[in-house]
Structure prediction request, 359 residues.
Amino acid sequence: MKLDMLSEMILDEYREKLPVYEKLKTVILRLLHTCLEENHILVSGLEARVKTEQSLEGKLELKGYKYHSLDDITDVVGARIITFYSDEVDIISALAEKLFEIDWDNSVDKRKMLEIDRFGYLSLHYVCRIPEALYKDPETPQLNKIRFELQMRSTLQHVWANMYHDIGYKSDVEIPVEYQRNMTRLAGMLELADEQFSHIRKEINGYRRTVQSMVANGNFDEVPLNGDTFRSFLKLRPFKKLADKIAAINQGEVYEDNLMPYYKILLHMNMKTIGDIVRMCNEYSESAYQLALLQLAGTGLDIVTYSVAVLNLCIVLILKKGFGEAGLVRLFDALYGVNDYHQQRAHRVYEQAKKINMI
Prediction:
């Protein structure tokens, strides 16, 4: 189909402005990336493109009657932010409203569409400009006048849109009713999944906040031991007092290391709640210190790891429960990987414990 004269003029203008559009795309990506990074928001995807000449020509063939100039086409430059969760679209849109000038008359919230088979197109589309207060280039002042489109959608919406566009929208053959029905059913399932992922995340975040509050308030017996609760508990530095006391044996310092590997160790030692760990500390700290005193005295070692406190607590608990050298070997294997040397180490620790009447 041959374009009319006005459409040809629009294409000529596009060719002339193409370098400006490419620069605008680069600036948009940089501004969006910085904004997301500053607000500590992790997204599934951030992309931008300049419409190709072929694509623009196709648009003019279909809808050329709507446009009087290139400026009337608001998606020559387009950017897209793909979020992990559907409810994050609102967060991103709020940031976009602070960042850019929004052309509300040409922006559309397609999430308000009711047709179930339009799930993949339920994204939020803003038509924007870059304000001079945010970015200004004296060499290309027209950057602040060109409108661009910003799409915001969830990962599932994005996947569906791409698949539907390929299977349905782009097809030259009309899709039979039975296939349309199956696609509609699938769209409903994906929309439900999108909602449920957001709902589950909210519930998990709420649970974490509750647990953190319980830990901070010292309600340890009510807090089940899991990865999240143990991590929150460690923020209270529960083993610091013992670690400092052990370091003081040689007037040394404590080196901070990661205690998370002890989470599974404590689970295997039948710790059910954070309260169980607190009771272990209260009951066995003195024995753990006496064992460390025997190990370090006379060595001159003036740097100890923070984990030495919890390690010695675990050793004392294993010996007090009667698991002997075999229990110590299992502990060392779990912490450091299976090694024949651990049998010797376990025997040495066992003999040290006997000297201070621990067993």
Observations:
- The first strand starts at residue 45 and ends at 50.
